[in-house]
Amino acid sequence: PDLFRPAKSQKHICCGIAPWGEVQALIPEAWNHTAIQEVNCTEISGNMHIKREGTACSYCLCLFQDEVVFPHCCSVRKFGAAGIDQGSGQLYCQ
To answer: What are the helix (H) ranges across the chain?
Structure first.
């Protein structure tokens, strides 16, 4: 069981520490937004930094470096917008 996988992780990016101690991102699958993709952020390399997985990991690693308490999730329903997702109560990812 994944301890930082919230029930509302669909349409959200969630950052956490994997059981083996590394930063991990949970993101909606590209073509199936009800499925969740787990990304081990230490495995991102090359041009993956400009793809969805790399972008989510850059966000999570930045939060980790800023010592944000994990787990931490943000909504991608209105990516880049200020405010709170009324459906989940999470801030929009910016």
So the answer is: 52-65
